[in-house]
Each structure stands twice: as structure tokens, then as C-alpha cells.
Amino acid sequence: MGTAIQEELQENLRGMNWAGKKLVYCETVDSTNTKAKELAELGYPSGTLVTAEQQKAGRGRSGRGWESPPGTGIFMTLLLRPAIRPDSASMLTLVAALAAVRGVRDITQADVQIKWPNDLVLNGKKICGILTELSVQEGMIRYLVVGIGINVHNESFPEEIRSTASSLFLECGRHFHRAEIIGKLLKNFENDYEIFCRTEDLSGLRDEYHAFLVNRGRSVRVLDPRAPYEGKALGITEKGELIVDVQGQKRLVSSGEVSVRGIYGYV
Ligand code: ATP
Predict the structure, then answer these.
(1) What is the pLDDT of residues 2-31, one digit of tens each?
(2) In percent, how much of the chain has pLDDT > 90?
(3) What is the maximal distance between C-alpha atoms in the chain?
(4) Cα(8)–Cα(82) distance, rounded to whole angstroms?
(5) Domain 2-211: what homologous superfamily?
(6) Candidate from 55, 62, 67, 116 with most ligand 1 atoms within 8 A of CB, to mutate
(7) Mapping DSSP to helix (H, G, I), strand (E, B) and coil, where does residue 4 land?
């Protein structure tokens, strides 16, 4: 099993300039982000890609888990060593979402959209999550890992996430090649990352991000831990904050640890 998908992956990474040039394929890991961080500490280069068939302890934001049964999904992490300020790093998670949405759309032709800041949704359900983590020393980024989990072949989900989670198979009724999605996604990421690095903000990518943003023009509930509130999402700033109109007043939501929901459901 391992060798076949590894070869398919290598085939799909052939045209890459730097992303995935170094590929670390694992049968089982705790989490691809954890593995990538270990490799970063060992000096692996920027662009190293870690993929796994299975995560034993896949992670989401705020210490939440990411359901990762064997063979069902894309479990991948890209290691980066960007020369940007640490407070610009959260924008890279939106860059990754943009690369992922186009990668998945290219392969599936499905109307996949972005739920701010970095989840992908299809028919109102989450099919992809992204977790960015960084190591900072003396005000400089030592490395950053962007973990992307995409539900591809899953036929069912555990009770607790059944109402919000889905897979490409469940929504599209067919199976897609994971390696092809990864290839497209990384190619897009190489391109978008370069655009991002030119200005260190999302000014060059914002229009495209908006085109895929499911929340745009919709009522949202911002789950601010201090005090949740509702408003209408207008779009994002060049820094990636969500602009929410709350009774005529614009509030900016930074991606950090805040989640956003539709007022009637997940989106
Ligand atoms: P939100 O809470 O708005 O979904 P988030 O960005 O805070 O987004 P993530 O870190 O992306 O959350 O993902 C973790 C959450 O996603 C978990 O708390 C769980 O509810 C849900 N989840 C876990 N595994 C999966 C999966 N394979 N597919 C879809 N959703 C999942």
C-alpha cells in the first residue's frame, strides 16, 4: 500500500519548484505537524512535505482533535522557514486555505468554499481543516508548519461531528486520488506563497479569497470567548481579519482562537 501511494505522490510532485521536493511519507504518525516539527528541529529544509496514511493523534486548533482513520484522508504538513514577522504567520493559514480550495476544486469540480479563516466546506459541511504552528526565537520565526487534513474517502463520521463533518466521497459520490489533490494544492501554494511574501500581507490574494469565502455577505456568529456576538460578514482585511458589520459598526475578528458559525448552522 505504502509504496503505491508514495510513487503516485512523487509523480504528482514532479513539477514542483520547492514544495514537496523533500517528501517524508509515513504509514502512521501521532500527527503530521508533530512529525514535521521534529524534522524541523533536525534541520530539514523549507518545503519539506510530511504525509501519512493515518494519524493516531491528529490535532485541530485549541487542543481539539482531528479525526484521521487509516487511508481515509489527506494528512499532510508543509514545513516552511519564512523570513516574515511572527505576527504575519497567521495569514499563511489563509494562504493555505486558498491553495487548498483551488486544489480540491480543480480535481473534484465541486463547489468547495472557505469558511473563515481556514476551513473548507462543501454543502455546508467541513471537509478540511488547517492547523498552523510556529517556533519563534528572539522575535524571529525559526520554522512554521502548515498542517492540512482533508476528508477524502470517509464513509461515515463519529456521532459528535456527524452534523458538521463530511468527505469528498460522501458529498460527490465518488473517490478521488489523494495524490492528485496534494499535487494541485502544493502547486497553488507555491504560487500564492510567493505573492504573499512580496507584500507580507494578503493584498495580492484577497480578491480571490473573497471569491471562495462562504461567509461573505452572510450572518455569522462570532464565538468570541469573552462575549459571542452576531453580525454580517463583509470580507477580510489585508491582514486576514474578518470584517463583521455589527449594527452598522465594523468589528475586526483576528483568526487566533476564535471560531465563526452561521447563525442557523455550521456556515
Ligand atoms: P470550527 O470549530 O469552526 O470547526 P476550528 O478551526 O476551530 O473550526 P479545527 O481546528 O479546524 O477547528 O478542527 C477541529 C474541530 O473539527 C474539532 O473540534 C471537531 O469538531 C472537528 N473535526 C475533527 N475531526 C474532523 C474531521 N475529520 N472532519 C471534519 N471535522 C472534524
Answers:
(1) 677 889 999 999 999 999 999 999 999 999
(2) 91
(3) 57
(4) 28
(5) Bira Bifunctional Protein; Domain 2 (3.30.930.10)
(6) 67
(7) helix
